[in-house]
Amino acid sequence: MSREDAFRNLEAFYSDLMPDSVDAKMLSQIRSRREQRRQKFNGAVAGFSIGGAVALTALLLAARPSQSAEARTMASIARLQMIHSGLAVRGDYPVKVPR
Amino acid sequence: MQRVETAEWTGMRARTSEKEFDNFFLEHQEIVMRLALAITRDQDSANDAVQDGFLKVLNRWNRVRQMDAPEAFLKRIVVRCAIAHLKKTSLLADENSEATCETDPSGIAVRHALGALTTDQQVLLALAIGQRWTYAEISAALKIPEGTVASRLHAAKEAFRRKWGDEQ
Predict the structure, then answer these.
(1) How confident is residue B119, by pLDDT bands cut at 50, 70 and 90?
(2) Where are the alpha helices (DSSP H) in chain B?
(3) What is the pLDDT of residues A3-58, one digit of tens each?
(4) Of B131, B143, B144, whose CA–CA distance to B76 is shortest?
């Protein structure tokens, strides 16, 4: 078999590859998966107690920016929790720590 | 009163955004299904890849809807999801021994030859020959330079030709 035959067959293979029609439920499944993901995230965020979040945020905000990535992530989660519970608004630092 | 109006406006904006996403989905579902199928060569994997791709787009919809070419972004995401599914199915099953619904002998031979290539080579052939993408499009989707696309594609074609020869 020549090189041309090989590629002719390859092209024919791809052009014959016809997808079934898209599942009519796919859009609702996508929305449902997104909702599950959102609820999971909210659940994780709400899992922190407010007092704990305030204390943790205060502790972590007092730290220098050279803090570990993990510590900064924890602070972000605490901030999100406060936004979620209405104690702070997005963009605000919820706690000011005196130097 | 103002609070109620704000809530109504927010709800209306969310509904408009949902509608926009629905239209985007309906408009592009078929083209990305073809794309995913060319890469995975399996209907179920293609379905999963398309669903994963649209979910990723939906999670970033507010940003994606403002892009100049949201469909290009969707295609890149679907390519990556399809590659992930192709790798997963390659680990689970050996295509040479797998029973496919293919009845055409040359189709079976092509499947076997493709299955014997590396994942990268399969993806390059699917995009360049199956989807007729340009080097620039492949380069953007796979995040590799165009020169690398050209050399890897050449190697993939040669590898396919050799495997095809073995199948005959």
Answers:
(1) very high
(2) 2-40, 43-59, 61-64, 70-92, 105-115, 119-125, 135-142, 146-167
(3) 788 889 999 999 988 887 777 788 889 999 988 888 877 766 666 566 666 666 66
(4) B143
pLDDT at A99 over 60: no
Determine the Cα–Cα distance for residues B31 and B38; give it in Å rounded to an integer.
Answer: 11
Check CB contact under 8 Å for B59 and A17: no
Give the pLDDT confidence of B85-116 residue by residue, as tens digits. 999 887 666 554 444 556 677 788 899 899 99
Q: How many other CB atoms are found less than 10 A from the CB of residue B46?
A: 28
Among A11, A16, A19, whose Cβ lies nearest the Cβ of B43? A19
User: ipTM of this predicted complex?
Assistant: 0.79
B-chain residues near A3 (CB < 8 A): 161
pTM: 0.70
DSSP-assigned states of every residue in A62-83: TS-TTS-HHHHHHHHHHHHHHH
Cβ <8 Å between A7 and B129:
yes
**Cβ atoms B70, B90 nearer than 8 A:** no
